[in-house]
């Protein structure tokens, strides 16, 4: 069958096809948070021009406002991705990747944006009221993934009262709610991110914590009561929607957030980044078994730091995002508190090799006069502050998005606005940023691009905070492939 003469879904047939033949990104859709909760325009989606041939390169060219306060937009996802790719000359309906889905962590609203009519100016085409989720006793929607059957699945983290729970809410292609996904009485304690691999009949999910706890920020009292936060990864039968294995990662794996299977759908293995204590675990399916094994493969030691007149405290790196290149060769992790971004060669996934490191701010920079680093097991000297185009970067490296060819890594600075306000108040005051890292895909290594900076400090309604990023044509963190 000649695929050129047949209908096919969006995306690419394989990860390597996307890497080799996908277009260079020209637009970067960025979830943007308004930290001033009294500002009526609220959170918005920023459209950033990332075409180096454009006169508006590295500038925000459009803002799609929610015009509602208290949303806390966080992650986004597509209505269709490469799991919907197929070749069929008799197809009655061909999926299109034309809607970007933006769940709101705090309001439980879900915003659906039309990105096809004018990709440079997305517009909200549907709003799903938070009462829809509450009617199914779920709240705090997080990760959105499209499914091969055309439905959209969103992970949730709380029940209607904000207590910790895990489930997934389903919508059809017209965004009618179909109810929750998990079947049976067994559920994980917490929810957060997820990734599926139908070839092995498996889905993995991670854990953050109770919405009523994390929504108010983070403080020392949280360390006294860890029961409201997660430390496990959970495996489900994809076909039956049932939980069959839970792996407890312990304190080393406290707050496991972003979880990724390898892009190759025939590799039943992946990584999870554990935030607070800055560890990365590798998980792999056992031979001749549905169960998985798991081991710690990256361990970033905490630093003993004294802030002002406060008592010294151990500061973990906070790995709040990880990303894999489409050829499954490189793993990138952020250290939001320590301030560095790292690249690892994972040709041998059980023994990642550090191949690149860049400091993009953080809490221990040399110019911070009220900070003393009393013990650092990795660095001899505190890192210099990062300055691009005369602007000192506040905050640390947070969400990442990698170009399809793996050569450009975009990095934003905001984690979650209540946590931003506690840990990086200057970033909230001055606004966040997006910077660009050039990647050596042949030998490994990274270099800061001095000519690219998106500054969110002078936005129309005050400084704002950029979080997660997407490309119109799909990207390294949203597309899931089915095995041929």
TrEMBL record:
The keyword Ligase does not apply. Belongs to the selenium-binding protein family. This is Methanethiol oxidase. The gene is 106093894. It comes from the Eukaryota. Keywords: Selenium. The lineage of its organism: Eukaryota, Metazoa, Ecdysozoa, Arthropoda, Hexapoda. GO terms for molecular function: selenium binding.
């Amino acid at each position: 069958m000649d695929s050129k003469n047949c209908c096919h879904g969006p995306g690419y047939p394989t990860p390597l096809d996307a890497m080799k033949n996908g277009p260079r990104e020209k637009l970067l859709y960025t979830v943007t948070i308004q930290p001033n909760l009294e500002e009526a325009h609220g959170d918005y989606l920023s459209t950033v021009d990332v075409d180096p041939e454009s006169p508006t390169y590295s500038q925000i060219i459009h803002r799609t406002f929610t015009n509602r306060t208290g949303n806390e937009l966080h992650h986004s996802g597509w209505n269709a991705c490469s799991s919907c790719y197929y070749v069929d000359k008799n197809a009655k309906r061909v999926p299109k990747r034309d809607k970007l889905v933006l769940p709101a962590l705090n309001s439980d609203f879900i915003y659906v944006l039309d990105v096809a009519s004018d990709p440079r100016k997305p517009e909200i085409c549907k709003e799903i009221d938070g009462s829809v989720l509450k009617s199914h006793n779920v709240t705090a929607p997080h990760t959105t993934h499209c499914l091969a059957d055309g439905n959209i699945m969103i992970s949730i983290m709380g029940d209607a009262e904000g207590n910790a729970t895990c489930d997934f809410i389903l919508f059809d292609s017209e965004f009618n709610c179909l109810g929750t996904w998990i079947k049976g009485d067994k559920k994980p304690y917490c929810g957060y991110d997820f990734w599926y691999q139908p070839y092995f009949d498996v889905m993995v999910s991670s854990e953050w914590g109770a919405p009523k706890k994390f929504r108010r920020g983070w403080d020392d009292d949280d360390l006294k009561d860890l029961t409201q936060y997660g430390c496990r990864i959970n495996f489900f039968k994809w076909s039956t929607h049932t939980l069959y294995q839970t792996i407890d990662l312990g304190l080393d794996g406290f707050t496991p957030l972003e979880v990724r299977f390898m892009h190759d759908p025939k590799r039943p293995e992946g990584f999870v980044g554990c935030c607070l204590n800055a560890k990365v675990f590798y998980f792999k399916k056992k031979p001749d078994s549905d169960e998985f094994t798991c081991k710690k493969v990256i361990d970033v030691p905490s630093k003993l730091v004294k802030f002002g007149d406060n008592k010294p405290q151990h500061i973990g790196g906070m790995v709040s995002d990880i990303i894999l290149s489409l050829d499954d060769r490189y793993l990138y992790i952020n250290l939001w508190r320590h301030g560095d971004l790292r690249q690892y060669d994972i040709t041998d996934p059980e023994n990642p090799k550090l191949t690149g490191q860049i400091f993009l701010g953080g809490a221990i920079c040399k110019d911070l006069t009220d900070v003393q680093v009393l013990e650092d097991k990795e660095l001899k000297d505190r890192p210099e502050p990062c300055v691009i185009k005369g602007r000192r970067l506040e905050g640390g490296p947070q969400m990442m998005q990698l170009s399809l060819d793996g050569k450009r890594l975009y990095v934003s600075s905001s984690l979650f606005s209540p946590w931003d306000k506690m840990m990086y108040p200057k970033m909230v005051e001055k606004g966040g940023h997006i910077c660009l890292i050039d990647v050596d895909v042949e030998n490994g290594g990274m270099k800061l691009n001095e000519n690219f900076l998106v500054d969110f400090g002078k936005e129309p309604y005050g400084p704002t905070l950029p979080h997660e990023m997407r490309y119109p044509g799909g990207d390294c963190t949203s597309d899931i492939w089915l095995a041929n």
